[in-house]
Amino acid sequence: NSEKKIWMSYRNNSSKDYYTYYQVAGGGLELYESFVDCVKQEVLEETKLDLKDFHFIAYDEGFRIFPDCPDRKIMFKTAIYLTITDEIPQLTEPDRNSAWEAYTINEFKNLKVTNSLRLKESVIIEAINSKFRNRRKHKNEINHVDSQK
Q1: How does strand 5-10 pair with strand 22-23?
Q2: Strand ranges of the sheet holding 22-23, from the earlier edge strand across to the other edge
Q3: What phi and psi, each to the nearest 5 degrees, are found at residue 74?
Q4: Closest among 103, 2, 125, 5 to 57, alpha carbons compared
Q5: Which class does domain 5-148 fall in?
Q6: Which helix (H) or strand (E) is 23 found in, with range?
Q7: What's the pLDDT tens digit per position in 22-34?
Q8: Cα–Cα distance between 97 and 144 in angstroms, integer?
Q9: What is the pTM of this model?
Q10: Nearest-angstrom CA–CA distance, 19 and 111
Q11: What angle is formed at CA 75 by the lines to CA 73 and CA 78, rounded to 5 degrees?
Q12: How confident is the model at residue 2 (pLDDT cuts 50, 70, 90)?
């Protein structure tokens, strides 16, 4: 959000992957679906936020052991995107996760988060910090131009 916090929810369904982990909105890519369309659809389904402006941060793929299938490695592909919004996500899947809460970057570092978030933590944090630096710079440029009028 505009206060440099990350909206996350706690996975509360013991029959789902990453039970007791914190997550951001996301989900599975449908056949022939682009990552961009997947982001829009999953965020809308899980939070009721209709994203218009979001930016690619990182991509990760490979094979991983998931908590609910400890006996085999499963292929995964993850694309991580960033958006800044003052809108508040709504809880749409109470049978899967808790209400959305905004966490500071320092809190995020200490949460038990999904593997993709943990592996890309430094890239995510740098992208957030960079986006806010650019916003401040742009805002200062606008203020400077306005003061020249």
Answers
A1: antiparallel
A2: 22-23, 5-10, 101-104
A3: -120, 140
A4: 125
A5: alpha beta
A6: strand 22-23
A7: 999 998 889 999 9
A8: 45
A9: 0.81
A10: 13
A11: 130
A12: low
